[in-house]
Amino acid sequence: MKAAEVKQQIALKNILFATDFEAPASRALPFAVALAGRYGAKFYAAHVIPPAAYALARPESVEPTLEELQAHGIRALNQIIEPLRQHGQRCGTLLGCGDVPDVLMEFVRNHGVDLVVVGTSSRGGLGKVLLGSTAEDIIRVAPCPVLTVGPHVTAVASVGIRSLVCATDFSLGSLRAAEFAVSLAHEYQADLTLVHVVDEALTDSVDSAKQLNEQRLREMVPSEPKLLYQPEVVVEIGPVAERILAVANELIADVIVMGVRGAGAFADTVSHFGSIAHRVVATAPCPVMTVGDPRKAENE
Length: 300
Known about the structure:
Oligomer: single chain
């Protein structure tokens, strides 16, 4: 696999924070704000009113109900961004109505969003999450990375990023994820660990598999930009999601980065992204940045 050639730092110029004004979103907000501040990005607070919010209203009540929901949405979004504006943060609000993933992706395209930040709830893992059951769709179709803050996150946004874990299955999606991981490590002068997990049932020789994959991981590290700390490479044997999470816990990772929508072990199926990525996002002790192929996202 060719090394991730990051010819220039990946820029985050516009960051979109998606919220339904519930507690999971509140947990994700500090991470969105911290990244926007670090990169000097414009911060967008976005809310989408789904049709289900007024589906049970009588026909004559639909319009006033929607107007009331819109007024509430505007007030709540302004409450989020006003303190940030007072501290000099460039901000904007985005309010829409319709299918949540579709409207959010329209926001992403129209405003040149480089990163979407969402929070997930604890009920049913990632099956029942912020924005209903649609967070999987957001991760699957977004042309930009998505930072998901789950219910088990213990990392603190204000600390920044000191330790990064990039989980790779050597697919093209993982290559793009490695580019983002290297760029983040350079920006924050953080420790970077590249991790690959070998399923013991799929290999005849554990030792040779480790040696081969350690070399492949080293080849992924680009010559530029120069990182403050030499990236570590780790090859684990066992259940993939569990070993990724174990490494993240051991290293007290601040962010896990991984590719989705590729052709490897983390790839999506027809209706949802891969079960490995699903488990990592739902149970990680830190935010997870999922990175897909924008060319595929355009064809979703």
